């Protein structure tokens, strides 16, 4: 399978997902669609619905009937709605000004509407899930949303915890990101009518992928070209992420104090960000985070070994590598 | 059936519901339970779970096995969690200071935690629903939450609409209150394995009951003994409710202007509230609202006519009358 073919296939899947996302944003009230569209069509990578579709197709015959195909796409997008719902509430909770380089929804329509449209998208996601009439899927999704919502609260309570351990960090990113990506893959497998052990393998695949995804996200907050122009969001908010945790393990007392001080200072400047980055770099915070993400990607790929060898497996492997290499 | 027996039975059902509510607030994180308990155990009437239980028992043999009984109670409380979730988000959206005579949760733990615990209770409710593994119940509940969340947004958009018609008001209270109470009754009927037409009758029973319930609530905001000590919340917030809509229909221009002016003034005093009440009273706003609520209660009771005649029907009729007569 050539990279060109793989990219072609991913592009065509993403096009269908994009169309499906539009089709189901069908509130009778223009305002609700307007705010929903603003957050849904704001340049997300669609990694979640894509994984659901690919995990389903991994087990299915190419000659699927159209109706079942539609069901798969319709179900896949519920994960994007769920994700968007959490972004809206996160932005209110964090008083965020921007999201993906644009004004945050709350900056345009206020906190009130943003909270309520978040609730709407959440309800919409659960509604799409219930259309399947499949108790197993509902079980996965309701367990996922419960874990996620507890995780959001734990993250809020941890906000000022500068002694966050690696294990605590993992618990946070597990609930914040990995649980949902894991559910995308598991529900895909259920839709593909995979056997129980295969569903479990894909559930774990998604979990490891999600952990790696969030570690890379947290790394890019310091190192991406975009943050090159500005300060990292996590740094500005004083959020302790893996690069900082690793750096604090090796840093001497002076470096440690400087790093924590800069993280906790409300008004930081570009030069403070550069100082923090130097301390993290010198104390292996970036390199060790990258290694950790690599380990998780390898664990994810291992989960695929016993699964059917076909085009869709190649796509899942490709995406795993892509998530590790991405620059934004 | 004597009133004493009826009250005894209601009290014993409410006790079991109260216990069940406690049992299932079982997050591993004390903070989540603390905030959840604060809103859940703040003097709610438990009308929603009570209706689910009674509507189920209307169709069931008295010698139910314990496991199925537990399932009914477990399912009934999900409506209280859902309701509590909306109260938490409402309080943030309305910047409410108080709720049921106590400080609002947001006043104790801040908006951030309040939004997220609202999300948690919502997720918890859906989780309890999914434990039933019953696609019909999931269908009712996800449709309900979707309608409710749209309704919340419509209410927000209508906030400054002083030309709200009776039909628009009904749409608001239908989504705000009646949809959920209707779902309580319908899910009860499904748990009672009622026939499809019986489920529909109870769905409608709940709808009419819910409409009446909210009209009485809006009436009590002006007339209850509690608001006798203070100003009504709706009046303070400038919310247009049925008594105002009716009064505006009959009021002369001067009364109309005064009433709208007082409703829209940010800092109102006790004497302004009394003036508004006099205008509403004089223009039949209260009496006509009460009549409207009565009409809905009668429609609700009509829905019960073709259903089994037993003790539980007596209880449902009693509750219908109680909701109309309640003073707080």
Concise account of the structure shown:
Chains A, B: InterPro entries: Isoprenoid_synthase_dom_sf, Polyprenyl_synt, Polyprenyl_synt_CS. Chain A has 328 residues and is an all-alpha fold.
What's the topology here?
The structure is a homodimer of 328-residue chains.
Chain A: H1 3-24, H2 30-40, H3 47-57, H4 66-93, E1 98-99, E2 102-103, H5 105-131, H6 135-157, H7 166-191, H8 196-223, H9 225-229, H10 233-237, H11 242-250, H12 253-264, H13 270-282, H14 285-304, H15 311-325
GO molecular function, one term (chains A, B): heptaprenyl diphosphate synthase activity
Protein name (chains A, B): Trans-hexaprenyltranstransferase
Organism (chains A, B): Thermodesulfobacterium geofontis (strain OPF15)
Provide an overview of this structure.
Chains A, B: This is Trans-hexaprenyltranstransferase. Chains A, B: Pfam families: polyprenyl_synt. Chains A, B: Belongs to the FPP/GGPP synthase family. The structure is a homodimer of 328-residue chains. Chain A is built from 15 helices and 2 strands. Chain A is an all-alpha fold and 328 residues long. Chain A has a two-stranded antiparallel sheet with strand order 1-2. In chain A, helix 3 (47-57) packs antiparallel against helix 4 and helix 11 crosses helix 13. Chains A and B meet through helix 4, helix 5 and helix 6 of A and helix 4, helix 5 and helix 6 of B.
């Amino acid at each position: 399978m050539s990279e060109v073919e793989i990219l072609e296939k991913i592009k065509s899947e993403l096009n269908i997902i994009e169309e499906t996302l539009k089709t189901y944003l069908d509130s009778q009230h223009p305002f609700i669609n307007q705010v929903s569209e603003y957050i849904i069509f704001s340049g997300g990578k669609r990694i979640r619905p894509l994984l659901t579709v690919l995990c389903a197709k991994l087990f299915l015959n190419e000659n699927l009937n159209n109706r079942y195909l539609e069901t798969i796409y319709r179900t896949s997008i519920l994960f994007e709605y769920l994700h968007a719902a959490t972004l809206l509430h996160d932005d209110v909770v964090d008083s965020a000004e921007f999201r993906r380089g644009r004004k945050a929804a709350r900056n345009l329509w206020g906190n009130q509407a943003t909270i309520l449209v978040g609730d709407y998208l959440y309800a919409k996601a659960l509604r799409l899930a219930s259309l399947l009439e499949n108790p197993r899927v509902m079980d996965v999704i309701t367990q996922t949303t419960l874990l996620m919502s507890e995780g959001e609260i734990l993250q809020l309570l941890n906000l000022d915890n500068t002694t966050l351990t690696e294990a605590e960090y993992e618990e946070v990113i597990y609930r914040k990101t990995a649980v949902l990506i894991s559910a995308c893959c598991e529900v895909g497998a259920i839709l593909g009518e995979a056997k129980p052990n295969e569903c479990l393998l894909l559930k774990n695949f998604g979990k490891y992928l999600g952990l790696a995804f969030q570690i890379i996200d947290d790394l890019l907050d310091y190192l991406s070209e975009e943050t090159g122009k500005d300060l990292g969001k996590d740094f500005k908010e004083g959020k302790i992420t893996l690069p900082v945790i690793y750096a604090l393990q090796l840093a001497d007392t002076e470096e440690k104090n400087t790093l924590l001080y800069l993280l906790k200072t409300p008004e930081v400047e570009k030069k403070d960000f550069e100082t923090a980055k130097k301390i993290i770099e010198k104390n292996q915070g970036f390199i060790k985070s990258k290694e950790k993400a690599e380990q998780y990607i390898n664990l994810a790929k291992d989960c695929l070994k016993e699964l059917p060898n076909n085009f869709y497996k190649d796509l899942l492997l490709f995406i795993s590598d892509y998530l590790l290499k991405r620059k934004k």
